[in-house]
Amino acid sequence: MFASAPDLLRLVVLPVLGWTAWRDVETRRVPTRTWYPLVGLGLLLLAWDAVGHLSLATSADVLFFVRVAISLFLVAPIAYGFWWIGGFGGADAKALITIAILLPTFPTYYFLGFALPEVVTTLGVFSMTILTNTVLLAAAYPLALGVRNVLDGEVRFPVSFLGTRVDVADLAEAHGRLYETPDGFSRNGLDIDALRMYLRWRGLTLDELRAAPERFRAPGSVGDTYDPTDGAVDVGGDGASDGSANPSEAATGVESDGGISPERDGEVPDETDGGDVGVAAEADDPWAAEAFLDDIEGSAYGTTPEKLRGGLDVVSEQEEVWISPGIPFLVPMFVGTLVAFTYGDIVFGALGALGVF
């Protein structure tokens, strides 16, 4: 294989994205520090490439800077905008912004008798190709979810294409949101990370809460409280996280995936004096939901007392529950990037095959 030195160095993004995709599936958490070396490398390679085009002597020189501008000032803001409205998790947005810096133009890799990528778009913005590939691949997720549910006999439109039915006991290691509330189905149910935060705050397991729901529904039952962590499944791990599709993260500094929180050491700290919380919970506050949200830092992924109470009622009363698992978006992003490096743009290539281009 032959390629320019900058293009060879850009290949480092593939193993990194592969690792983050695995983390997204397993924990919905990716350390923010993962992206710093890639951003630094991207800026260095961008300057390296720009030096060769500074003369603006040819149309190719002008096109280079146009493509870089589109990548930096269109693709990157799109990533930020989707995070802001809740369409992307924190890790998803950071990954795409990193790609916009590291891969603004199409790289070229020469092999014996052929070159990759096979399909290069007229626009020539590689980060845009990765974005369109990712979105197209991610769109297949609800279809796959629906097919699996139908084959399992769970036919309920549109729920079967947006959620999955799980045992309540499995929520301890699940990701996403409850798709059920006391009033019926809703995609805006309780975030399962927030549920774990609440249980850790009270020092309870889900089994304990389900065994005596009336006892723990009483607000005065709150005793000593504990650090709720960020709700990650791997609370014993590094705890660093990215990835929640929660717009309130910008204000709270908490992120959840992919996916999201500030970095923590992953340990559950010693218990704190819960006296004040216990007094506050004596008010009309079922499950001490309001006391919990008042006591913690941040908003627990946009959770309100009413939403928390509703979610706790559901998980305390039912054996199975529908959840909206969300898309581990870094998985289609990794696959979309891999496809971009080898084949190129999926949509552009398909249109070309149909004779549109």
UniProtKB/TrEMBL annotation:
Membrane topology label: Multi-pass membrane protein
Subcellular location field: Cell membrane
Leader sequence residues: none
Keywords: Cell membrane, Membrane, Transmembrane, Transmembrane helix
Domain Preflagellin peptidase C-terminal stretches: 318-346
Stretch list, region Disordered: 217-274
InterPro entries per the UniProt record, alphabetical: Preflagellin_Peptidase, Preflagellin_peptidase_C, Prepilin_IV_endopep_pep
Residue spans crossing the bilayer: 35-56, 62-83, 95-112, 124-147, 329-354
Stored Pfam families: Arc_PepC_II, Peptidase_A24
Keyword Transmembrane helix: yes
GO cellular component annotations of the record: plasma membrane
Residue span(s) of domain Prepilin type IV endopeptidase peptidase: 12-128
Superkingdom field: Archaea
Designated name of the protein: A24 family peptidase C-terminal domain-containing protein
